[in-house]
Amino acid sequence: MTIDWSWIGDHTDDLTTLTVSHLQAALSAVFFGLLISLPLAVVAHRVRPLRGFLLGLSNVLFTIPSIAIFVLLLPVSGLTRTTTVIGLTVYTLVVLLRNTVEGLDSVPVKTKEAAKAMGTRPFRTLLTVELPLALPVIMAGVRIATVMSISLVSVATYIGDGGLGQLFTDGFQRDFPTPVIAGVVLTLLLAVVADALLVAVQYVLTPWTRRRA
Amino acid sequence: MTLYRPGKGHLMIQFDAVHKRFPNGTTAVHDLSLRMPEGGVTVLVGSSGCGKTTTLRMINRMVDPTSGTIKVNGQDVLQQDAADLRRSIGYVIQQSGLFPHRTVLDNIATVPLLLGWGRKKARTRAAELLETVGLAADAGKRYPHQLSGGQQQRVGVARALAADPPVLLMDEPFGAVDPVVRTQLQDELLRLQKELNKTIVFVTHDVDEAVRLGDQIAIFRTGGHLVQCATPAELLARPADDFVADFLGAERGLKLLSLKTLADLPQGPAPEGGAWTLVLDEARKPAHWHHGTDDTDIPVRPLKDSDSLLAALNESIASPTGLIARVDAAGTLTGVSSRDDIHAHAGLAHTEARAAAPVATEAQVKA
Q1: Cβ A116–B110 below 8 Å, yes or no?
Q2: What is the distance, to the nearest Å, from the Cα of residue B147 to the centroid of all Cα atoms in its chain?
Q3: pLDDT band at B2 (very low <50, low <70, confident <90, very high)
Q4: Residue A120 with chain B: CB contacts under 8 Å
Q5: Can you tell me the distance from the alpha carbon of B108 to that of B156, in angstroms, rounded to the nearest whole number?
Q6: Average pLDDT, integer, range B174-189
Q7: Do A119 and B83 touch (CB under 8 A)?
Q8: pLDDT in tens, B103-117
Q9: Which range (A138-142, B42-46, B146-150) has the least confidence?
Q10: Is A213 helix (H, G, I), strand (E, B) or coil?
């Protein structure tokens, strides 16, 4: 299996476009996943009876095959980027919801009590005490969800999207390995770089976890 | 020397016929009526599950009573917004309960920020308080986990004082630190209290801590019954019943002596020509006891007038002659006192405490 470097040289523009599109799909999914998970996690954390239901639901959604999700969405959003992002968002929930709930659970009762006893109202306690302290666990979920989404974008080639995934079908149909290899390498690179950036973001956001005494 | 200070002004906190039953059916507080005067330290003691912490937490509405009324500064707490009420009352929690994600300075600034002081003013106030509680300025930039247990506890006190509330609630604040640090923190609290004159409600299960800090002590029995509320001296001299006596321990007679200073104890010149002589250094400070014929030295711990009668008794037992060395504030010898005089005064202290006019609390009246 040899790499045709001249093909890569001829297609740098295409590769760049596909990489950006790929990343955009994955990050959108994580963004909307967080947007949905945060309020649901707060509900699951506070209302014990709903907790099992919501976490179970996110598990069930995860088991739906991607093709099935896309087919179900076709009448709604058609062969568009929206369909891709909705599908991927559904999959991020399984990690994001669970980690956010666990993050909120991990906040020491003592600390929440202290906030209350100082006269902090519940919503402010959530924003300024609970979420910051839950951040390390939430960020662990965001990292998994991001890497997972980056690897999953390719499945959207079924509906004509799929970012770098299009290189796989292209190479497969023409029995030409170079695009496939380029696609794999670029997907891997995206995942590694995104994960490293998230580690950096977490480092900046959680100064209290550094320099453990 | 701790004294009940009725002259300090009006009632700050008032419990009237307060009951608290939890949803699971346990009674945490049973028919509690209790008064806490402004500027005084009221210590709530009792074994675990006696309702002392619940009592404390009802003052700032962390727990609401099932029936009865609680007034702070004349106002019914149930008529006030809980969050606003809590901001007006300082609260120090077991093991400090600091926010791990905020710097020490921001921890202290919590209530001022909630009150809308603005970040700059709140931080300035927080920096002042660091000094008040005996912490270095550079501690302000650290995170709680970077401090020792004792330092964290100081931050907890500073945080409670930040908005200068008239009332301070302290829930076993020194429970998690070692005995040496605990004594230091108790001393600091007494020093602070002299300057600040807060109305303090302090929960502990340590009788010695209660006797040291309290202007009045309320003893609770399992089931949330207040058994006796009195000054430390009265409590030690005249426990209301066997439960209180047992709780105070077999050495309660000695604990009473810890409340009396030795200032009234007569003193005479140091003995000369006997087997033992008190050797002084060039500044006339006692150095040690010296035995003329054996040529042995025994260390001496000189006592000031502000030391307790208990310390005098202890020192006289350790002294080879039964004499204690008395010094002035500078440490210069002023004279010696005999074991007999110490014993006589110890007996007198007990008689006085027993004879003191009874201050009946409502709990006793009802009992």
Answers
A1: no
A2: 24
A3: very low
A4: 83, 110, 114
A5: 8
A6: 88
A7: yes
A8: 999 999 999 999 999
A9: B146-150
A10: coil
d(C-alpha A21, C-alpha A14), whole Å: 10
Q: Which residue of A has its CA nearest to B108?
A: A118
Contact B160, B91 (CB under 8 A): yes
A5-204 adopts what CATH topology? MetI-like fold (1.10.3720)
Domain regions of chain B by residue span: 6-253+358-366, 276-350
Mean pLDDT of the region B307-325: 89
Whether residue A168 contacts residue A157, with contact meaning beta carbons closer than 8 Å, is answered with yes
Chain A residues touching B101 at Cβ < 8 A:
129, 132-133, 206, 208
Sheet holding B89-92, edge to edge: B89-92, B167-171, B199-203, B41-45, B216-221, B225-230
B91 touches chain A (CB under 8 A): yes
Say which of A110, A121, A208 has its CB closest to residue B143.
Answer: A208
Dump pLDDT digits (tens) for A36-58.
999 999 999 999 899 999 999 99
Would you list which residues of chain A are within 8 Å, Cβ to Cβ, of chain B?
108, 110-111, 113-121, 124, 129, 132-133, 206-208, 211-213
Q: Which site among B59, B81, B99 would you substitute to test the A interface, given the most A Cβ atoms closer than 10 Å to its Cβ?
A: B99
Quick one: average pLDDT of B143-172?
A: 93
Give B33's pLDDT tier (boundaries 50, 70, 90).
very high
For the entire predicted model, the pTM comes to: 0.82
Question: Any alpha helices (H) in chain B, and if so which ranges?
Answer: 52-59, 82-87, 104-108, 110-114, 119-132, 149-161, 179-196, 207-213, 232-237, 242-248, 252-257, 309-318, 339-355, 362-366
Ordered by start, the domain boundaries in chain A are 5-204
Query: B207 is written with which tokens?
Result: 């009788």
What count of CB pairs under 8 Å joins A to B? 61
Give whole-number Cα distances, B46 to B172, B204, B228, B258, B284, in Å: 12, 8, 11, 21, 47
A133–B101 C-beta distance less than 8 A: yes
* CATH T-level fold of B276-350: CBS-domain (3.10.580)
User: In which band, very low, low, confident or very high, does the pLDDT at B365 lie, cut at 50, 70 and 90?
Assistant: very low
Instruction: Give me the percent of chain A exceeding a pLDDT of 70.
Output: 98
pLDDT at A149 over 70: yes
Residue (of B171, B160, B168) closest to B53 by Cα position: B171
Confidence check: pLDDT of A68 > 60: yes
Please determine, for residue B291, whether its predicted confidence score (pLDDT) is greater than 50. yes
| Cβ–Cβ contact B85 with A under 8 A | yes
- Do A119 and B101 lie within an 8 Å CB cutoff? no
Domain range B6-253+358-366, CATH class: alpha beta
Q: What is the CA radius of gyration of chain B?
A: 24
Residue B214: phi and psi, rounded to 5, are -80, 140
Residue B208: is its pLDDT beyond 70?
Answer: yes
